[in-house]
Design brief:
The protein folds into 2 domains: about 15-75, no CATH class; about 85-290, Four Helix Bundle (Hemerythrin (Met), subunit A) (Up-down Bundle), CATH 1.20.120. The chain has a two-stranded antiparallel sheet. Strands 3-4 form a two-stranded antiparallel sheet. The chain is mainly α. It contains 11 helices and 4 strands.
Length: about 290
Amino acid sequence: MPNHSGLRTATRPQPQMTVALASAVRVGITPALAHPVARAKGSASAARVSRCRSVVPKSAFRPFPGLVERVSVSHAAPRAPRGRVIASAEGDGASSSGDALDVDALVKEVTDFSKIGQRDEAYFVGQMVLLFCIAFPPAGGDLTKADLGLQPSLTDPVIGVSLLLLCGVMIKQGVADLGNSLTPFPKPRDDAALVTAGAYQCTRHPMYSGLVFGACGAALVTGSPVRTLLAAALAALLYFKSGKEEAYLEQKHGEAYAEYKAKVPRLVPNVAGIGALLEAAFGGEAVDGEAES
């Protein structure tokens, strides 16, 4: 039809749009892509799509390779669980419930002030104070063996680093094995399982052992007499805390815990226990462990 300049213009065909619409029909996503466009363009566009299906070769109907596969995978992917979760150790002996550690539930447990005085929280408070003082020693924390007239040992840093590494392995594996039974207080949670596998073949309280080893390692690496005294105080506190905890566990689990207690040391591991710990941490599965709920 004529325009204002008097020249005749022809409507340009839209082969790219036609091919895209036909491709959408061919790959099976017509309801998502082709139908809104056809509705906007009217019945004429829909007719062009139907004509192109018989004209355009099949090899041209793949403008977006992998599109359908990606859409299918995204719809099939499971929804992530609500809350922050730390995976527990695998294996039948890791925990009777097999639940991973729910950090939000743990924080809620710790901040439940309605239970203050019922879980022996004083042990936990003292433990945190000592750990803070070991990390940031009070007055006199910069003293060294040389300041006291003692000869520093060349092996102290090596032993200290080894103890720090052992501390990390014991705490990490202990948290993974204990799962949702974890609590910082001596009194176990109501739904706590009796875990005897993995790190709990090394000692009955691997996380307490790890904290003591870590404190001693820090004292040896820094050569600090103040940290050494604080590490000894932490060891004493955790010894009494573990004794209080075991009284609750014996009351809760009865003979099952008594048998476990007779076989595994409280805080100081033996050679077989270290081997079981390393196997659980780096071997991919727990060794000869069982869990009682």
